[in-house]
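Aim 2 progress update. The chain analyzed this quarter is reproduced below.
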Amino acid sequence: MTAASVPPAASKFWLALLGLADAAGQSWPGRDAWIAALSPALVADLAPGLALDREAEQQIRLFGRYQQALQTQVLGWIAEAGLACVTMKGFAAAFLYYPTPASRLIGDLDILIRPDEVTPLVALLQQRGFRFGSGIEKAWGFLSDASFMPLHSADRDCNVDIHVKPDSYPLALGLDTDAVFAKARAIMAGQRMALAPSAEHMALILIANLAKDKFAPDGLRKLLDLARLLRHEHAFSWPRVQERAERARLGKALHTTVFLLRSLGTPEEFLPANAGALRS
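Predicted structure tokens:
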């Protein structure tokens, strides 16, 4: 992707998703694929002037509310058991950076726990009817040094992805579990208090995730999470992110992520002032 490959209408749409422009009337080849990747409900919240599939939007919105109820219930069980976890990825981003969190709650509830609390947490969830497994069959099975096969509820409507590291190798070389817990912040998730990573740690986890998925098109939602993070976190420190990214051998991933954000039309004020110094 190059800056020239993103149509002006798409860049204006991207700015609208950040609350910086009006997307009404914007159209370009591939627009529907962008909306599908982000979800119609999320786009309707952020760019209300666009004509969308209202039935699909309402279905996703209702399911998101259902997911929010289930996932916050799980967090309640964990807190009542005296266990500590940090919510990550889409759940944390939803409650920090989106006007209607339920519209962003797509997929698993990702939580980071300390390794010595894995056994009691798994026992707790199994007592509530959760079982290990996944509705998605992968040809190469499941292999990770950071998380387990997701636990799903008996009706398979709620999946919990337990992480003992912020993300797969090599992120832990620059950002380990203790560091995330040390800088974690309290957020309100509906009516419940939860923990989320610091802004810089959230950015690193997003960058590592994008790289792990080889910057595939379905990573557009993660790029939006990162762009909205940068829009809202006024004290964000790119130098701290760069230092940890280089320790984690993710310098190239950081460079690629910044390039994509710039190509999409993210304002320069949100990007590294020394972008030219980022390792390519």
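The first helix runs from residue 8 to 17. The chain has eleven helices and seven strands. These observations will guide the mutagenesis experiments scheduled for the next reporting period.
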